Amino acid sequence: MIYENASAKINLTLDTLYKREDGYHEVEMIMTTVDLYDRLTLEKRKDKQIVLKVEHLYVPNDNRNLAYKAAKIMMERYNLDSGVTITLDKTIPIAAGLAGGSSDAAATFRGMNRLFELGLSLDTLAEHAAEIGSDISFCVHGKTSLCTGRGEQLKHLPKPPACWVILAKPDISVSTQEVYTALDLSKPHAKIDSKACAEAIENGDYNEMIRHLGNRLEAVTIEMHPIIQTLKDTMMKAGADIAMMSGSGPTVYGLAAKERQAKSVVNALKGCCKEVYMVRMLG
Ligand code: ATP
User: What residue ranges carry the coiled-coil annotation (predicted)?
Assistant: First the structure.
């Protein structure tokens, strides 16, 4: 039996460049992981089945689950002679912009590799991961990265300068697909410079990193759910250095260099958001 942690991600930047012929958007974004985890336990079975145990109303326990899909790829690709029971303990909020499902799939790729002693590199696992989702390759490595293509091409970056991350997940779910459908690429928008942000991270320059954070999808999701703007305003008023939506939302994160600053942001959120986490970047 082996254990794997699946950590949530946040987007420091997210820019959508154009819509490709295959229907995906070409993106440029910097993602990093934070210490908010789902926990997975993987055990070999006597038969050749994949059994997924997860007790959550909104998380499927069949082949719709990304962790199941990852296990299936590994079983077929490497002709594994026994199946696997995966027990998934969810902590990462669902449909939140924190890549919970993608991270569970990534942890399954890593876990299957260890359980069956396949000796595959993370790069090989990340290649398999790209077959079932755009963010899963990033999650396989779990390292801060500049991600391009449809998100699966990675340039690893150093860990961002130390700071506190306050996550606020409003009581709504957002479908990534819906947000991309509503995105109007012809609308004017503020420039998002992921390369400048990457350079700031490489230089360990917190203030410069913050200056370049941005998310092209933020305005789209705010239009559907104004609570996101309220959460951003609340965080900024309470002293966050920056507040930004992650992924396609609805989770908003605030960054704070100092612990007492982060605590006052958490306190300020108490009146308007039930699900709040104060965490650290891992990547
Ligand atoms: P992203 O940030 O990559 O867009 P997300 O955090 O917005 O992802 P998820 O929590 O991954 O969204 O879930 C989106 C949908 O995927 C859920 O509604 C659920 O039905 C389905 N799903 C499939 N596998 C999982 C999983 N392992 N955990 C959670 N949801 C899953």
Answer: none
